[in-house]
Amino acid sequence: VDPTRAAPIEPVSGGEGHPAFDPGRDVPRLAAALPFESLGLRGERGQVAVGSAVVLEGSAALPVAVQVSEPGKGAAFVVAFLGLDGLSARLAQRALPTPARLELIDSELRVIASSAPAGVLEPLASARQDVVARGAATGRTSTGERVAVAKVPEQLGLKAVVSLPEEIALAPVRDLRRTVLAGFGLTLGLLISVGLILRRSR
């Protein structure tokens, strides 16, 4: 996007899971998603801005702009829509072999990428929203899930949410508790046996 040019620079279109760029369709959407004039006035060369996720050809995408000129009303930007289907595929691989659900949400609590099949930009499940709203790093939902929440770095306004059924999340703790109790019982039994032997030997 360069206001000083009579015609836009020829766009690079699609590739590696990113949606193809259609100037007639996407330039107005980018202009609506990112406030270029105010960004140019306040920003500087190299500044990166990320807008709210949108739906392109049935898939979620993030509008991104990088300022490539000095500040000013007519500042120039390199702009793109970053497709998120590839990220969802990576989250699905990362979740295996557990039944954990890995989700990336935006500031509006919409799921923009997920390890599980879901509708495009659907709201995060209400029970998980409650945990996110509390601002805690971990929590328990009303539906019996354990949830962990972490902010994505670099001021993107995104958060990662990991949810797992409570019985599975706590299984290692229960196993450890059984092991400790069994070990304690065995130790107690040995102490009693040693005490009986010493008593008989007197």
Secondary structural class? alpha+beta
What Rg, in angstroms, do the CA atoms define?
Answer: 27 Å
Number of DSSP E strands: 9
Task: Tell me the number of helical segments per DSSP (H or I, 4 or more residues long).
Answer: 6
Strand content: 15-25%
Oligomer: single chain
Strand order of the largest sheet: 6-5-9-8-7
Mean pLDDT: 76
The secondary-structure element order is HHEEEEHEEHEEEHH
Biggest sheet features: 5 strands, antiparallel
Poorly predicted segments:
172-177
Shape: elongated
The first-to-last residue Cα distance is: 96 Å
Roughly how much helix do the residues carry, as a percent range? Answer: 25-40%
Task: Describe this entry's structure for a reader.
By secondary structure, the protein is an alpha+beta fold. It has helices at 23-33, 36-42, 85-95, 126-134, 166-169, 171-201, and strands at 48-50, 54-56, 59-67, 77-83, 101-105, 111-114, 138-140, 145-151, 159-165. The longest helix has 31 residues, at 171-201. The chain is elongated, with a radius of gyration of 27 Å. The protein starts with 22 loop residues before the first helix and ends with a helix. Residues 172-177 have low confidence and may be disordered.
